Structure prediction request, 340 residues.
Amino acid sequence: MTKVLVIYTGGTIGMIKNPETGLLNSFDFNSVYEHIPELNRLHTEIDTMSVTRPIDSSEMSSEDWIQMAKLIQNSYDRYDGFVILHGTDTMSYTASALSFMIKDLQKPVILTGSQLPIGVIRTDGKENLITAIEIAAAKDSNGESIIQEVAVYFEYSLYRGNRSSKVSSHQFEAFKSPNYPELAIAGVNIKYKWSALFRPKQSKPSYNFSLSNSVALLKIYPGMDINLYRGLFDVSKTKGIVLETFGSGNAPSNIEMQSLMKDYVEGGGVIVNITQCSSGGVKQGAYHTSSFFNKIGVISGSDLTVEAAITKLMFALGTESNSDNIKALMATPMCGEMER
Prediction:
């Protein structure tokens, strides 16, 4: 029998209504079989644990990501797969961060949650949890885990974690993967898209928990006064900036803005250029309005999601001290997060 560890971090899925008061209280996942008896039919041994301080996902920090990664590291040899129950708001950030901190997974780490509490009649939480556990326990004909990466399961779809984004606050179909196909679709059967699955290069996972919080996010908009954001370009405080530009990586030809960026990069700062569009990627230099970025050493973020760009930059800055190494790491796919 396969063994799956369910880790509760907080979020809507972990709430259940008190029948006496009508209030929502935290769900005790140690009694998960009592509330979701369908789990008994999975023929999977399920253990549960909670992080030290379950929190709303909007309160997530890099320290919380490190704690989750260490829980997986310490439990890795005892389980066939892992399911992390997480609030939806920052689930894609957590999934992306974990994918960079834990390299060469041979086992699945599936994040899931719900739009409605698990104790509500119309909850999506039960199906999400049951199927996430089923996927985490699934093996191929060789006895190897079908999923060998960090993924997000939500409303019948499994996405690569560092390719996912939350797109709706009110629909059950809350997540999408704008630039990469679903890894699996759960219908009557779970259909895996084998060609889309990531496979590790090494036989054992490696862990690196070094993350830098000296990262900023700046979104370009028409009529922007760059002086309002001048403080972001202080390399002594901000080591890296994710720049959200127009279309395929374009920005206004503003001399003051260009001068500020040029000085920042020459001073050792790292700028990663990603698109504001919900799908597609950056093609730096395709238009005159983005050719300047190539000249000063701005990194093309290709088709990175904003969640993956931020967490990868945090990882790169925490792992490397040399500016050229950081740029090379940001421009190279690590675990399927971007096109080459």
Summary: The first helix runs from residue 32 to 35. The first strand starts at residue 2 and ends at 8. The chain is about 25% helix and 20% strand. The domain at 2-207 is CATH 3.40.50.1170 (Rossmann fold).
